[in-house]
Design a protein that fits this description.
The chain contains 1 helix and 10 strands, in the order βαβββββββββ. By secondary structure, the chain is mainly β. A hairpin with a 5-residue loop joins strand 7 and strand 8 (120-135). The longest helix has 8 residues, at 10-17.
Length: 152
């Protein structure tokens, strides 16, 4: 089935609201790993299968270019929770870029995860294959959508 959508993992909400272990998405360093089209992300994956390096998020499907975009992806900076009008809360961060001279091909999406323990937060579909040859690859969180977004 491959990539077709962007979603948060259900286990994130279950953990945060169900009394399980907490996610500190404002303080823990989040990372962005890139993946090809050989996987099918599953928003209903169990926590162990939603983690970086587990389930479908394994090294064979990860797209990286050492040292331009390291395996595991870069850490995000400027993480913030923003309360917007209409009961909307979203997680934002600064864009991340690879080093100059990076070559990445067949990048279909990313896994947003907690860097300290690999717990999956969300996955983002890029709408089709993305690539850069001897250049800079950027992941830019959408200001009006954020990395994850809730409406209450």
């Amino acid at each position: 089935m491959a990539w077709s959508e962007s979603r948060i993992f259900r286990s994130l909400l279950q953990s945060a609201l169900g009394g399980g272990s907490s996610f500190d998405l404002g303080g823990s360093p989040l990372r962005v790993a890139l993946f090809d089209n050989t996987i099918t992300p599953d928003r209903d994956a169990a926590p162990a299968d939603a983690a970086y390096g587990e389930g479908v998020w394994v090294a064979g499907a990860e797209v990286a270019d050492d040292p331009g975009w390291d395996v595991g992806g870069p850490a995000l900076t400027g993480q913030s929770w923003d309360a917007l009008a209409g009961g909307i809360t979203q997680l934002n961060a600064n864009p991340v870029e690879s080093d100059e001279g990076t070559t990445l091909v067949d990048v279909y999406g990313d896994l947003l995860y907690v860097g300290a323990d690999g717990r999956g937060v969300a996955f983002h579909y890029f709408g089709g294959p993305q690539a850069v040859t001897n250049g800079v690859f950027s992941v830019v969180p959408q200001g009006d959508e954020g990395l994850i977004r809730f409406t209450v």
